[in-house]
Structures are given as C-alpha cells and as structure tokens.
C-alpha cells in the first residue's frame, strides 16, 4: 500500500511557530506531526510514502533521514507549489502499480483507522473515497451531501449556503482512475478543481476517530491539550 502525504504548505496561520519549523514538524505532546503520520501509516499496512516539501525543506529531509519506521519514503521537493492535486499528478508513476492509494494532508492530526477506510473504498468501487467529519463551521470547509450507500451527491468548497455539516477531512483513498479527472493546469487543487467533478462517482466515509486540523494556533493549542495518541 502506498500513500501521498502532502506536507509542503507554508503554515502561515501557525506563525511565528512556523517561521523556523516546517508545519509538518510541529510537535504535538512532544512528537512531531510527521512522526505521528508515519507511525499511523505503518500501523495500517502502508509500506511506501511520498512526501512533498517546499517550506524549510532541508529540515524535513533531515528528519526523514533519521526515521526509524522502516517505511520506504520518497521526497518530492517543489520549488514552486503545485497544489494538492498537482503534486499527485506530477508523481503519478509512484502509484503506477497500485489498485488504490491514500492521499492525506499532513496538517491534520488523526488516529483514523486507514485500513477500514481502504476496505470501504474497495467495497464501493468509486473513483475516490473522501474522509468526512462533522463541523460546526461549514462555510469554512468543503461540504459534501451523502446519498444512498454513501455516494456523494454534491460537493462545494467553502459554500455560502452549506447544505450539510459533513466536511472534507483531507484524507482520501483513490483509484488509478483519479488521474483522468485531474485537469492539466498549474497549480491544481483537489477541493476546487477535482472533487466537484467527481460528484456521483465518489463516496463519503465518515471518520469517527479523533481528527483535528492543527493549521491555526488555536487548534494547535487544543491538540496539545486533548490528543489521545495512536
């Protein structure tokens, strides 16, 4: 099993913390976020991970050089940010031999059961399975409506008039067919450029485990108070 871990963001909402530390290396209860992700992947059978880098890339590379999980890790440095879907498209060969693969945003803190999510995806045969969570701030998220058997009937990024409280968690399981739906533009974003076009061909998987976007100082403080661990 292979996974993309999108970790190249600037972390502007976490400044000044991210002036000197890449967002993916900020510690949660003493453990860098990237270490949490790598251990989560290992727990659920992932063997190969591609991590994209940009801001303070040498520090991420140094951390990975000392990694002890035994995962096969590939670094993809982006001199210019390609966008979430752009990174996946540019590294298509990384998953050329895969029936399906995981895509995750590194600024999420979670202990989600990735194995169960993969099983759900394989059982529903969609182009993509989107991890979802319940939010009380739907205007700030990508919002999905679920139909029969979890099929996503609508998806809008940051809607002015949300039609549900099910928000995109930034964790996907995708089949190879996803590459037919990523437009050849630069940069290209999943939320705005890809997911709306997959309505009726992707499924939603509601994450019941812990999940928090630590992209703000408020949420980062919250994570350090309440993170239950893997």
Quick overview of this protein structure:
With 230 residues, the protein is α/β, with parallel strands linked by helices. It contains 6 helices and 13 strands.
Overview of this protein structure:
- It contains 6 helices and 13 strands.
- The protein has a single domain, classed as Spore Coat Polysaccharide Biosynthesis Protein SpsA, Chain A (Alpha-Beta Complex).
- The chain is 23% helix and 29% strand.
- The chain has helices at residues 33-43, 57-65, 84-90, 114-124, 190-194, 217-226, and strands at residues 2-6, 27-28, 31-32, 48-53, 72-77, 100-105, 108-110, 128-134, 142-146, 152-157, 166-175, 202-206, 211-213.
- The protein is globular and about 45 Å long.
- The strands form 3 sheets. Strands 1, 4, 5, 6, 8, 9, 10, 11 and 12 form a 9-stranded mixed β-sheet that branches.
- The longest helix is centred in the N-terminal third of the chain and has 11 residues, at 33-43.
- A hairpin with a 2-residue loop joins β2 (27-28) and β3.
- The protein is of the alpha/beta class and 230 residues long.
- The chain starts with a strand and ends with a helix.
């Amino acid at each position: 099993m292979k996974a993309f871990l999108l970790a190249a963001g600037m972390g502007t909402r976490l400044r000044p913390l991210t002036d000197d530390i890449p967002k993916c290396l900020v510690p949660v209860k003493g453990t860098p976020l990237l270490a949490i992700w790598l251990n989560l992947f290992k727990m659920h059978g992932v063997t190969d991970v591609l991590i994209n880098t940009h801001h303070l890339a040498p520090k991420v590379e140094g951390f990975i050089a000392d990694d002890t999980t035994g995962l096969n890790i590939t670094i993809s440095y982006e001199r210019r940010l390609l966008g979430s879907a752009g990174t996946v498209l540019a590294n298509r060969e990384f998953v050329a031999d895969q029936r399906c693969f995981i895509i995750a945003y590194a600024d999420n803190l979670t202990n989600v059961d990735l194995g169960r999510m993969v099983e759900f995806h394989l059982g529903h045969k969609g182009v993509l399975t989107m991890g979802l969570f319940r939010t009380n701030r739907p205007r700030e998220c990508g919002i999905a409506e679920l139909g029969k058997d979890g099929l996503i009937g609508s998806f809008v990024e940051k809607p002015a008039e949300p039609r549900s409280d099910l928000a995109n968690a930034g964790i996907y399981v995708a089949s190879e067919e996803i590459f037919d739906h990523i437009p050849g533009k630069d940069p290209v974003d999943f939320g705005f450029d890809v997911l709306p076009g997959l309505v009726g061909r992707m499924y939603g998987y509601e994450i019941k485990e812990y999940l928090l976007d630590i992209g703000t100082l408020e949420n980062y403080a919250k994570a350090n108070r309440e993170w239950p661990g893997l």
